[in-house]
Amino acid sequence: MYCAIHPGETVRIQDIAESFGISRAHLLKAARQMGQLGYLTTLRGRSGGITLGMAPEDISVGEVVRALEGQGEFVECFNMDTNTCPIAGTCKLTGLFRKGLEAFYQELDPITVADLVEDGAALSRRLPLIASSV
Question: How far apart are alpha carbons 100 and 119 in whole angstroms?
C-alpha cells in the first residue's frame, strides 16, 4: 500500500517500518518474498529500496496473503502428518476453521491493492513519504 500511494518512487524499508510502526526485520522478510513473487521490485545498495513490481490493480490481496502466509497449516490439525491433537478426526473445529479460512479468502480475493489505496490522499496524509527516502 505504501508503494502504491508513492507511485514511481523507490521507498526504503526503514521508512515503511517507521510509518506503520512495525518491525523492520519482519518487513524485510515480507519484502524479499514479495520481490521473489514479482509483487515488488527490489533495489539493493545505498540508493536501494522497493517499488511496486506490477500495477496495483493487478495485485489481489487474497493472492498476496496466501503467498506470504501459506495455505497449509492455519491450525495444527490441518496437517495430518504432523498433527498431535488427540481428538483430530472427530473434532468439528477443523471443518469450521477450514470454512472460515475459505470465507476469509473469498472476501480478500476480489480486492486489489488499487482498491485499498482508492483514497490515496487520505492515506498519504497519514503515511507521508519520510524525508530520508530516496
Answer: 29
8 A C-beta contact, residue 11 and residue 129: yes
Is the same domain home to 42 and 17?
A: yes
Query: Nearest-CA neighbor of 15 among 94, 133, 105?
Result: 133
The CATH number of residue 13's host domain is 1.10.10.10
Q: Residue 75 contacts by C-beta under 8 Å, 6 or more apart in sequence?
A: 93, 94, 97
Q: What is the pTM of this model?
A: 0.79
* Calpha distance 92→90 (Å, rounded): 6
Same domain membership, residue 31 and residue 46: yes
**8-state DSSP, 77:** G
C-alpha triplet 75, 100, 25: angle, nearest 5°: 55
pLDDT digits (tens, 9 = 90+) for 74-102: 777 777 788 888 888 888 888 898 899 89
The amino acid present at 103, given as its one-letter code, is A
For residue 71, the enclosing domain spans 60-111
Judge if 98 and 68 occupy the same domain: yes
